[in-house]
Design goal:
4-stranded antiparallel beta sheet; 12 strands; 27 helices; Rossmann fold; elongated; 10% strand; alpha/beta
Length: 749
């Protein structure tokens, strides 16, 4: 696995290096184009030693819990605190935290600054690689872009100045609330606050494009935090004072009314402070007794009616026998109505029958009248009971008044109690009013008494190194990302390459041996010289490769070498004709009487190579239109016999039948020691499959790293007899690239 990875990097190192370099270059350009940001920090310690807990006797807490620390951090980043910093430091007019007028063109300002930084980044590259003209054109394009953007940009450079001069010039003019809120939001984004380890210390950091501004704002935020309790206490006092002031008029009115009630009561009863001169005369007592006697008589009368009603109800009767019922005009009217309805119902029933709608309607009307009578009787009965209850209550009230007046509660005591209650109410109102006045004065006194028990232990100083961008981190990330993209892209390119590369791949996918790999050599650049090169240079690498192919074919059969060999491929252009020629030349150079047949009737490349495309050949022979001895021709330069395709190519689809080809091969098998047939690709026409049934061995030529593996596999399956396939030949192998796949022992050139 490690060895494969090493070979993979060996053959793809250029691609990986280029992608990594591009990633690093992009990161460098981005870094140069960014505006550096500086972070200044101040540290605030919270001192709980002097803080008294509510409800304790001066006890102090030794540390601050995390919840309290979180609350204090929230106060540091609160909008109210930051708004005070914005107002104090005049950040509304600051070019970085900016007012609304500057925010509108901020993105244009960034676009204006970016091209110049890009030029600064790439200018050294143009100079180093000697492409100054291209660099000049790039700079001219950047200048044109700047001239187009410049009229729209009026944003001051945040790197120059701290923005305070503009604030001074603006004077005390009140800022737009929207601009203030925008500045507060910008400052909130620049402020970070967090706890320092486990200590009771808050680290407040402010990020800005100017280091002096960052330090100044960090210290301003820390100071605002220290005085924040004063503002909080003052706000709370103002709110409480406002509420108390709203309540004072109401309390003052209540006090006045209660005192006036005491004075009026004393004047009404001729009382002085501490006096109890209250009495009732005999006439008033006689009046009370007379009213009580009358009330008791009335109760007795009402009770008699109630008893009569209960007696009637207990016997199953109703209240119709009561005098009130007899004298009721409504009940009399209802009884008369009931009699009339009953008579009408009886008449209708006698005349029309019981089921007539008019009879039913009259019957319903009679039921309604009965229900009304019953309801009225209930109302009369209830009224009798209510009158009895009311009379009884009046009797009890008079008895209580007379009883209080004659013994258990004299009138003088009652008057004193009422006076005492009025005076007590006036006293309570007076104390409440005075407490409110005292509370208001205390609030004003305590509004500025408290400060937060905290102090700054490390004031902020202008930083020397920007906190953003972090060059080494960005470059490291770009390096890792570039390497990852490079390796991933290289792996993807390898996966997208569908051709066979190593012998192991071919043998595992096809189940066939790799006979030989033929590389790209100088001799192959001239097709006419290839067979001659194999014959005249037997020690060359190309000759050695063809010799290896010949011997591999001869060794596929034990005891007897294959005599008739077919050379085919999956697609055109894979070099099968050249391979056939070199194989035949190798057989001839070994002393064998060799015949090479151009069986690719649709594309007779072999015939064109020998200049025999207009001579009679295979087609004429299969049609019995030529003499078998005369159609073959001997070539002295190659030392072999050639059977061209013939002149009847337009009828080639009809002549290559199984019987004709079998007879042809049998005719030439005896006079020749070896026959090599250059057949068309398997997947395009059926000729190669017909011939494959009649040969001894088939050699399948595959273009290295080009022909799709699945296509090769499917075309080999089309051959009728898999046992006759001698193996696969890799053609057009790139020697230097092949060695980088770590399978060089399988390649012979």
């Amino acid at each position: 696995m490690l060895q494969q990875a090493i070979y993979f990097l060996w053959r793809r190192w250029k691609f990986v290096l280029i992608v990594t370099a591009v990633a690093l270059l992009g990161a460098q350009v981005w870094l140069i184009a960014q505006t550096p940001l500086f972070s200044a920090s101040t540290q605030i310690i919270l001192d709980p030693a002097n803080e008294k807990l509510a409800g304790t006797d001066g006890a102090s807490q030794s540390t601050i819990d995390s919840l309290t620390l979180d609350n204090q951090i929230a106060i540091v980043k609160s909008t109210a605190l930051l708004r005070r910093v914005v107002e104090k430091e005049h950040l509304v007019d600051d070019p970085e935290f900016g007012s609304r007028s500057n925010r509108g063109s901020a993105w244009l300002g960034a676009a204006y600054a970016y091209p110049e930084r890009a030029v600064q980044a790439v200018r050294p590259l143009f100079t180093r690689f000697g492409i100054g003209e291209a660099g000049a054109r790039f700079e001219r394009a950047v200048k044109a872009a700047e001239s187009y953007i410049a009229p729209w940009v009026e944003t001051p450079d945040p790197l120059n100045g701290d923005g305070r001069a503009a604030a001074v010039k603006s004077g005390a003019a009140e800022a737009d609330p929207e601009d203030v809120e925008a500045a507060v939001a910008a400052l909130a984004r620049a402020v970070t606050a967090k706890r320092v380890a486990e200590a009771d210390v808050i680290n407040v950091s402010v990020t800005s494009a100017n280091p002096e501004r960052a330090a100044r704002l960090a210290n301003a935020v820390g100071e605002a935090y220290l005085v924040d309790p004063l503002y909080a206490r003052l706000d709370a006092g103002l709110r409480e004072s406002a509420w108390l002031n709203e309540r004072l008029p109401e309390l003052r009115g209540r006090l006045r009314r209660s005192e006036e009630a005491v004075v009026a009561f004393r004047a009404e009863h001729n009382l002085v402070d501490g006096g109890q001169n209250v009495t009732l005369d005999q006439e008033q007592m006689a009046q009370l007794n007379g009213r009580l006697v009358a009330a008791r008589a009335d109760v007795a009368e009402k009770k008699a009616k109630v008893d009569l009603l209960q007696s009637l109800e207990s016997q199953g009767g109703d209240a119709q026998a009561l005098p009130e019922v007899m004298n009721s005009g409504l009940l009399a009217s209802l009884r008369n109505q009931l009699g009339e309805v009953s008579l009408r119902e009886a008449g209708l029933a006698a005349r029309l029958g019981e089921g007539n709608p008019e009879v039913i309607k009259a019957r319903a009307e009679r039921a309604d009248v009965k229900r009304a009578i019953a309801a009225e009787l209930r109302n009369v009965a209830q009224n009798i009971r209510n009158e009895y209850s009311l009379a009884l209550a009046q009797e009890q009230s008079l008895e209580k008044i007379l009883h209080d007046a004659t013994g258990q509660s004299n009138l003088a005591s009652k008057t004193a109690i009422e006076l005492h209650e009025l005076e007590e109410e006036a006293s309570v109102n007076r104390r409440l009013f005075e407490d409110f006045l005292k509370r208001i004065s205390v609030i004003h006194e305590l509004s500025g008494d408290q400060t937060r028990l905290a102090r700054i232990i490390v004031p902020a100083a202008p930083p020397d190194v920007p906190s953003f961008p972090r060059k080494m981190l960005i470059l490291g990330f770009a390096l890792v990302a570039g390497l990852g993209l490079g390796v991933g892209g290289a792996w993807a390119r390898e996966q997208l390459n569908g051709g066979f590369i190593t012998s192991r791949e071919a043998e595992e996918a096809l189940g066939l041996p790799l006979l030989v790999s033929i590389g790209r050599t100088g001799a192959r650049g001239a097709p006419a010289a290839m067979p001659r090169h194999v014959r005249q240079n037997p020690m060359s690498r190309l000759s050695e490769a063809v010799r290896t192919l010949r011997i591999s074919i001869q060794m596929t059969e034990v005891g007897q070498s294959p005599k008739v060999v077919q050379v085919t491929s999956a697609l055109p252009g894979e070099g099968k004709t050249t391979t056939s020629l070199m194989l035949a030349a190798s057989f001839a150079s070994s002393g064998l009487r060799t015949l090479v047949i151009d069986a690719d009737l649709r594309n007779p490349s072999l015939s064109r190579y020998f200049g025999l495309q207009k001579e009679a050949g295979l087609v004429d022979l299969l049609l019995n239109q030529a003499d078998p001895e005369r159609v073959i021709q001997f070539d002295d330069a190659h030392g072999l016999w050639v059977l061209p395709a013939g002149t009847g190519g337009q009828r080639s689809g009809d002549v290559l039948t199984f019987d004709r080809v079998r007879k042809l091969i049998e005719r030439y098998r005896s006079p020749f020691d070896c026959i090599v047939l250059d057949t068309p690709p398997v997947g395009q026409v059926v000729d190669a499959r017909v011939i494959a049934n009649l040969v001894d061995k088939t050699v399948f030529v595959v273009k290295w790293r080009a022909t799709d593996r699945e296509m090769v596999r499917e075309n080999i399956k089309l051959l009728p007899d898999q046992g006759k396939i001698a193996g696969v030949v890799f053609n057009f192998v790139d020697e230097r690239l092949a060695r980088r796949y770590g399978d060089s022992r399988y390649f012979t050139y």
